[in-house]
Amino acid sequence: MKTLVIYGSRRGTTKYCAELIGKTLGEESILIDVKCRDIRSYLESYEQIIIGANAFNFKLNRNVRSFIKGNLDIIIEKRVYLYICCSAEEEKDTLSLYEASYPTELLEKAKSMDNFGGRLDTSNESWLIKRILKRMKVNDYDTMDENTVIKWASKLQNNLNEVRNG
């Protein structure tokens, strides 16, 4: 089953997770940045969609939110899996973020939703961004676990194999 892995990434963590997922799923998957101009044409030719988004300060990537809003009619007709990359540590926080960010019909349709954690490295940020983050009391962190991403994608691959084999 062909799988389209769509991601919206600000600093690269969500893209990195998309790459791990694509590698695990193999040749029948393609990765595409949510900012791609002709993304709608890709949607129509794939049976399954994985959507990944970064979140910061409990706000989901705006490009992903816009993409979902503009393409919900096509997306809900596919097998859909969702993941986010953020620092939410508790499951209830992750669920709250999903509920605040995605339409109810998409959440009901999603076969799986997960949070792979996040990474924030401010070493390359401007002094202004560093100052703002310091005032917000946001520190650098790395809670993303590659093994969790690979296990999730492997489980998804097993589900696909079961669907294929009937």
Could you walk me through the main structural features you see in this protein, from its secondary elements to its overall organization?
The protein is an alpha/beta fold and 166 residues long. The chain has helices at 13-25, 39-44, 62-75, 91-101, 104-109, 127-135, 146-165; strands at residues 3-8, 29-33, 48-56, 59-60, 79-85, 112-115, 119-120, 141-142. Strands 1, 2, 3, 4, 5 and 6 form a six-stranded mixed beta sheet that branches. Strands 7-8 form a two-stranded antiparallel ribbon. Helix 1 runs parallel beside helix 7 (146-165). The mean pLDDT is 83.
List the helices and strands and how they pair.
Layout lengths: L2 E6 L4 H13 L3 E5 L5 H6 L3 E9 L2 E2 L1 H14 L3 E7 L5 H11 L2 H6 L2 E4 L3 E2 L6 H9 L5 E2 L3 H20 L1
Parallel strand pairs: 1-2, 1-3, 3-5, 5-6
Antiparallel strand pairs: 3-4, 7-8
Helix pairs in contact: 1-7
Summed up:
The protein has 166 residues and is an alpha/beta fold. It has 7 helices and 8 strands.
Number of strands: 8
The chain-level mean pLDDT equals 83
As an assembly, this protein is single chain
User: Quick one: biggest sheet?
Assistant: 6 strands, mixed
SSE sequence, one letter per element: EHEHEEHEHHEEHEH
Q: Report the span from N to C terminus.
A: 12 Å
Strand content: 15-25%
